[in-house]
């Protein structure tokens, strides 16, 4: 403080002393007086066109405070003064990464590393860029290279842990996070990442404790605060989750990740109209537009414009067949209200849609990409929307949902499969599906169960269990049936590609028991009585994550709480099964 005062007096007498002014700014910077530091660095930059240090420090301040456009301006000025200055090239790459200008960021970080191939911070930045580009294996190699150069740099271990998460290698991920914590036990970023690992495992209280510790270290970081909101949401504490996510949105109202979380909370508490407005934020997330074709669509979207009767409308399927089935519940209302509509769908669903929603004009359903792969064709539509954006027009309150089935299948197929099932025996026919296949392995596992978990049900008399699980599960069924169990597979039904036949099989069941997967959506849309075991809260989509044991989306589906112990869930189902069929 004495030095500052002395320097301040000197500057008053020597207003043109650039070095003294820089030192004064630097001292305020080190003391955390950021506002004063910015003011003083700016004065220095204005006094001297060649004073690059003040510009670099301004760039770093703006980078740290997430004012990335300002940071880019000053780092460019540094590079005009000191062309090919390696640390500035590295910083520019990080700023471009934060601005999501990934191709240019990758070029700059490679230039930086070429000038100094021992800069572990540059390697760490390169790994981050590659990770966001979804070049996960390349990113892994780069993070490992950074660690080889410096084994005491916690961010490289932490980011390698995130990379292993994305590569579906949770054990390796945990090792990296734990090593990062050993190196830097007070890094809020590392604590945040480790908390995310435990959240992914369904250990919400442990994750929350780590997020709270991270928040105590850096109370200004909104990502940590949003993660605290998410943890309370998964713990069913809606009051606190809303409190924290509102704080985040107040400080950063344009953050689409925050909007997405808030929409999930609002959906669960039944505030649909408000939820849909925040749900639209998903369309601005980089994860939503995952390839070149979807990027092409982005600029033609009109989800914020009102649908008018005279509009020529294109609806594009949501990601995943399950979500497409769910939102197709809105199609009958859409087609009744608007006459000039084209809908792009998964080709496997088109026969079902045509059978179920027959209109005088049958030219409604087209394979995905029929229009959206061409900019010229997209220009011919007045409105272009993803199917999930229809909810904000047609599903604003609970009474807007219909409990009636909206899909049906071929009568001849239903009869054919009925005969096949009768040839097995005359027991009650119970369909069963136990797996969900997801790109993120940890989520897929959380949403799935083991076939052996159902053994106490399958051995009950009076019931015949029918396999409705798609995927490569033949070996699993063979092993299961060796142990005096019996689960039947109807070989004539292709459960992955022939949804007409799968729907006919579902229609012949007395009951369907399933985890969260595409077949469960199809059963609900057909009106087949279904008992669905919800995933744990963090892996549960908004349509399953309900306060009660019912979802407004499907009148025939009853929900069982997946947060319970597996044995307890199956015991509850067993009791209900015997009660439903009046058996002891």
From TrEMBL:
List the SUPFAM superfamilies.
TPR-like, UDP-Glycosyltransferase/glycogen phosphorylase
Q: Does the keyword Repeat apply?
A: yes
Q: Which InterPro entries match?
A: TPR-like_helical_dom_sf, TPR_rpt, Ycf3
Which parts form a coiled-coil structure per UniProt?
none
Q: Which UniProt keywords apply?
A: Repeat, TPR repeat
Q: What protein am I looking at?
A: Uncharacterized protein
Q: What lineage is on file?
A: unclassified sequences, metagenomes, ecological metagenomes
């Amino acid at each position: 403080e004495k030095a500052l005062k002395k320097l301040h007096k000197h500057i008053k007498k020597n207003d043109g002393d650039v070095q003294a002014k820089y030192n004064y700014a630097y001292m305020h910077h080190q003391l955390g007086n950021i506002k004063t530091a910015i003011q003083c660095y700016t004065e220095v930059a204005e006094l001297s066109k060649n004073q690059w240090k003040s510009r670099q420090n301004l760039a770093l301040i703006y980078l740290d405070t997430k004012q990335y456009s300002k940071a880019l301006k000053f780092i460019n000025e540094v590079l005009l003064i000191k062309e090919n200055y390696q640390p500035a090239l590295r910083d520019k790459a990080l700023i471009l990464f934060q601005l999501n200008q990934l191709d240019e960021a990758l070029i700059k970080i490679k230039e930086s590393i070429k000038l100094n191939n021992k800069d572990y911070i540059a390697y760490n930045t390169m790994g981050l860029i590659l990770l966001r580009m979804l070049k996960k294996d390349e990113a892994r190699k780069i993070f490992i290279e950074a660690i080889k150069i410096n084994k005491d740099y916690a961010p490289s271990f932490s980011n390698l842990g995130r990379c292993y998460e994305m590569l579906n290698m949770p054990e390796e991920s945990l090792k990296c996070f734990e090593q990062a914590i050993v190196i830097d036990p007070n890094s809020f970023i590392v604590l945040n990442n480790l908390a995310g690992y435990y959240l992914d495992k369904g250990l919400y209280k442990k994750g929350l404790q780590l997020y709270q510790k991270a928040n105590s270290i850096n109370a200004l970081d909104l990502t940590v605060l949003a993660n605290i909101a998410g943890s309370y949401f998964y713990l069913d504490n809606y009051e606190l989750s809303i409190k924290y996510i509102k704080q985040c949105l107040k400080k950063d109202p344009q953050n689409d990740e925050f909007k997405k979380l808030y929409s999930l909370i609002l959906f669960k508490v039944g505030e649909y109209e408000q939820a849909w407005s925040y749900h639209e934020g998903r369309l601005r997330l980089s994860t939503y537009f995952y390839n070149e074709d979807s990027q092409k669509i982005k600029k033609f979207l009109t989800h914020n414009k009102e649908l008018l009767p005279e509009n020529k409308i294109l609806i594009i399927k949501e990601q995943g067949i399950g979500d497409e089935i769910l939102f197709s519940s809105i199609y009958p209302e859409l087609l009744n209200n608007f006459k000039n509509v084209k809908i792009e769908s998964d080709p496997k669903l088109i026969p079902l849609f045509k059978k179920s929603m027959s209109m005088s004009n049958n030219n409604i359903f087209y394979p995905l990409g029929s229009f959206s792969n061409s900019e010229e064709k997209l220009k011919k539509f007045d409105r272009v929307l993803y199917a999930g954006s229809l909810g904000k027009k047609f599903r604003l309150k609970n009474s807007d949902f219909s409990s009636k089935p909206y899909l049906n299948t071929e009568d001849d197929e239903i009869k054919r499969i009925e005969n096949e099932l009768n040839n097995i025996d005359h027991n009650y026919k119970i369909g069963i599906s136990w797996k969900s296949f997801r790109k993120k392995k940890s989520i897929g596992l959380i949403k799935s169960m083991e076939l052996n978990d159902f053994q106490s049900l399958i051995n009950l008399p009076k019931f015949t269990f029918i396999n409705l699980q798609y995927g490569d599960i033949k070996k699993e069924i063979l092993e299961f049936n060796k142990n005096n169990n019996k689960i039947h597979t109807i070989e004539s039904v292709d459960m992955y590609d022939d949804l007409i036949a799968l729907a006919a099989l579902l229609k012949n069941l007395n009951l369907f028991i399933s985890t969260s997967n595409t077949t469960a959506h199809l059963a609900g849309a057909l009106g087949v009585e279904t008992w669905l075991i919800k995933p744990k809260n963090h892996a549960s989509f908004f349509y399953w994550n309900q306060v009660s044991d019912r979802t407004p989306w499907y009148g025939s589906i009853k929900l069982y709480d997946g947060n319970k112990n597996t044995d307890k869930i199956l015991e509850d189902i067993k009791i209900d099964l015997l009660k439903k069929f009046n058996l002891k």
